Amino acid sequence: MNDISCRKTHFDIGKPPTTPLHWQTFIFHFHDFESLPSEKGSCVLSPEFAFCGHMWSLRFYPSGFDEESLNDQCSVFLEIHDREKKIAIDFSISIFDLNGKEVRIISTDNVFDENSPSGCGWHDYVERSYIMSSENQILNNGTLSIILKMRPKGILDRPIEPFVPSNTFQRNMSDLYLDEEYADVKFAIQHKRIKEDGEDEILDNPEFVCAHRLILRQCAPGLDAMLGDSYVSMTPVPIIGVDTSTFKVALKRVYGLPILYNEWKKHSRDLIDAADRFGLKNLKLESEAWFVKLTAITNENVDELRVYADSKKCYLLKEEVMKFFAKTSFPMLKGIFNEVRDVESAVTDGKDEGSSSSEEASRKICISSLRRQANDEGLDIDGSHETLIRRLKDHSKMKAKWEIKSVDNVSEI
Q1: Residues 370, 375, 376, CA angle at the centre, nearest 5°?
Q2: What tens digit of pLDDT does each residue of 366-377 get?
Q3: Which of 18, 83, 144, 205 has a 20 to 30 A CA-CA distance from 55?
Q4: Which letter does DSSP use for residue 199 in this model?
Q5: Dist. CA 122–CA 45, nearest whole Å
Q6: How far, in Å, CA of 96 to CA of 408, rounded?
Q7: Could you tell me if 285 and 276 are in contact, meaning their C-beta atoms sit under 8 angstroms apart?
């Protein structure tokens, strides 16, 4: 659940095997963790799920199961709902931080039958304060995710198929992030201060950040262009006006690493500026999406955000500003900003109100939908409503011509 993501949903076509032949993973997202009950014995029960022909659920006690639980401890139990038929399983319950590191895991095995308790787990699983602490980076936008893995006991005695390791390219690329041993590019992040006369002064203590030109050439051509054809390896390239931490976070995306929620919260606007300056198009759009998600538009900041959206060509942010104006001052906005069509698009929220023009109806599609359509068609996803609509229309016409040509070339046997 990092950042803006999608979840996988699996569908069974036909009847699946009653007994799985490998570990099965279930992920439970406890949203708004801070507001979960703080009294001992208060339970948050997951929805029921099926495993090995039985129905199960996860019982989570945010402040402990009972008096046997230590103070500040969360309790967690795996519960079976039908015990008529005996079943023995191995299972583990784990928590990961936002960096993907497993910070808490406990595993055990248990036999469930009509003579055993319905639940098995731990009174003292993890400290609530540990989960709540922002330093530990456990909560993702306030959500705690618990991973449950289950398998029938003794499954290791029956090898099913050879183990095939995953491709290590992504991990190897990630290991090169900020690597100095094999780096051939060095950026010197120079800081400024404002003198008494109002002029900027460049300080003499730059911070150095290393990178690799091959990766920059493929993934960050704007940064690569700064080096020039005659660049000598490890010659410092000055970067002025960008905070070091922001620049490092931008490089994380270049190297394929995820940006954490707390980093988006701190750097999303600065990342828009950096990505716009260095030509990191996808990072700019991603940063804009996070900035919109994390920023509340108010009467106090709406004018500044409108100007900023125009200056940086942030069309999603501009769309949100127009929606705000549409809700608060639609009549006044018509006369002042002369952007009636954008406002009408926001007011109707993408619904066609009987416009006879198909182009006008197309304008009422939100920018995120247009970007998604362009991405699905393999097109450039950057640009205004008009640019994206025109790009999609041109592509549609080309596809139609290609299909007609393909039909014309079909010969019967």
Answers
A1: 100
A2: 898 899 999 999
A3: 144
A4: -
A5: 15
A6: 56
A7: no
